[in-house]
């Protein structure tokens, strides 16, 4: 037996994200806004060296900055 999400080529995590979005969009306005705020994720990371934690950074902002740096480095070559 193959699950529908697997047959559609989705991972289980992606399937859950899509299902959660559908449920949030089906709610009434006031409940929907609160649910959408809960659904937002803010991932942070930091590098550790010699047993000490470095600066904590936002993952989305760090990825955007790295993409800009890579584009600038590639364009100037």
TrEMBL record:
GO terms for biological process: proton motive force-driven mitochondrial ATP synthesis. One of its GO terms (cellular component) is mitochondrial inner membrane. Transmembrane segments: none annotated. SUPFAM superfamilies: Epsilon subunit of mitochondrial F1F0-ATP synthase. It comes from the Eukaryota. One of its GO terms (molecular function) is proton-transporting ATP synthase activity, rotational mechanism. Belongs to the eukaryotic ATPase epsilon family. This is Mitochondrial ATP synthase epsilon chain-domain-containing protein.
